[in-house]
């Protein structure tokens, strides 16, 4: 997966945000941002795994035991939409407790599964 250029490098006329790479980039961004913002400092780690059906599993670990929550902020709120976006992008997501915090994972369906 290429990260070169970031979101601003895309063609502004293209509205195809359903590509697996776009969903993966957004999912990683939201989960890592949440881990950095709410993870009680320390290291944040993440991994990406793609299976034969092009499903991408994102795993992000941080040092906070608190599970993320899907919120529904008002239209003027400046934050609080991260897990709402992840839940919209992912076919499934969840949290695994770790001795030093937690791991949040999300599985994003690939092209072959029709999403």
Would you tell me the overall average pLDDT?
81
Largest sheet: 4 strands, antiparallel
Shape: globular
CATH architecture: 2-Layer Sandwich
Domain module tally: 1
**Name of the CATH first level:** Alpha Beta
Helix/strand order: HEEHEE
Report the β-strand fraction as a percent range.
15-25%
* Alpha plus pi helix count: 2
The CATH superfamily is identified as: Histidine kinase-like ATPase, C-terminal domain
**CATH fold-level topology:** Heat Shock Protein 90
State the strand order across the main sheet.
1-2-4-3
Tell me the structural class.
alpha+beta
Helix content: 10-25%
N-C termini distance: 19 Å
Low-confidence runs (pLDDT<50, min 5 residues)? 1-16
Per DSSP E runs of 2 or more residues, the count of β-strands stands at 4
- Rg over CA atoms: 15 Å
């Amino acid at each position: 997966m290429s990260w070169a250029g970031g979101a601003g490098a895309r063609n502004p006329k293209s509205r195809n945000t359903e590509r697996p790479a776009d969903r993966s980039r957004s999912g990683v961004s939201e989960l890592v941002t949440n881990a950095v913002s709410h993870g009680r400092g320390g290291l944040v780690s993440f991994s990406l795994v793609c299976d034969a059906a092009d499903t991408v599993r994102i795993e992000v670990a941080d040092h906070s035991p608190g599970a993320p929550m899907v919120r529904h902020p008002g239209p003027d709120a400046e934050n609080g939409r991260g897990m709402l976006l992840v839940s919209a992008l992912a076919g499934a997501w969840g949290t695994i407790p770790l001795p030093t915090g937690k791991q949040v994972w999300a599985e994003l369906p690939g092209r072959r599964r029709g999403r």
